[in-house]
Structures are given as C-alpha cells and as structure tokens.
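User: I'm preparing a small set of examples for a lab meeting where we compare how different chains pack in three dimensions. I only have the primary sequence for this one, and I'd like the structure in token form so I can line it up with the others. Please keep the answer compact; I'll paste it straight into my notes.
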Amino acid sequence: MDPFQQMSDWKKNMDHFFGDRFWNEFEGLIKPTIPQINIYQTDHELFCIASVPGLSDLEKLDVYVDYTTLELKGSIDIDHSYGTVVKEEILHGVFERKITLPFPVRSDKIKATYKNGLVYIQLHRLISETSRKNRVHVHVLENS
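Assistant: Understood. Below is the structure token output for the 144-residue chain.
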C-alpha cells in the first residue's frame, strides 16, 4: 500500500478527532503540497501562480473555478530513467489541490496561461447585483 495513502487515511481519522483545521500547520511536514501556489490580491483581482514543471500536454491539467474555490488537477511527470535516485526533492506525480479564495470570483472572466513551468491564473472579483445601493422609500408615519 502507498505510504502516503496510509498517512492520508491516518490524517482523516485525526481530522475527525481534532477538527479539520488542526493539521493545517503540519501539512507541509507530512507531505508537501503540489502544486505549490502563490496568490496575489488587489481590490478587484486575484493573480495565482502554480508551479507545474514538465507539462508538455495542457490537456493533462484541469483548472476549475467555482465561486470561492480554485481547483487544480493533473500530473507532474519527471523522466527519471537515468539511473538510481540519489536525491529527489522535486515533487511529482498525480495531484489534486483545492484552494479557498479570499472572495467570490466571476466565472465569465478567467484567464489562464502556461509558461516556463508556471500556470498563471487571473481571476476577477464577483460584484453581486444585489450589493448595489438601492433607494428606500420613506413613508410618513401618521400621528395617532
């Protein structure tokens, strides 16, 4: 059995016991997350950069955005048929990562590009139609 799968099962049991947020501080120690992601925020935009080295087929990368969630699925494949591994620090393999965004984003205005092993994702803040200022009609209260 995959040792990371055993660790994941153990973590799920501990999450159930301690609560979902308990392991957030230890996540990188147990198994570093892939892909690594930086997110930059302005008033009305989010700019996400994900490290996905060696991607030769963009069809092998799935990017989903849903309201306040960014999800990345794919595989980082490194050809390592050059001999016996002496040191291995570059994370690779199948990944699935969900990131909670700091605010809701528009589904109709998303731009994603790939260059030099980095995925650049530009998202725009969702400004709800219901958040606009509405004039309230004031009625005169009759004296009784």
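A couple of notes for your slides: The beta strands are 37-41, 45-51, 62-66, 69-76, 93-100, 105-115, 118-125. The domain at 37-127 is CATH 2.60.40.790 (Immunoglobulin-like).

User: Perfect, thanks.
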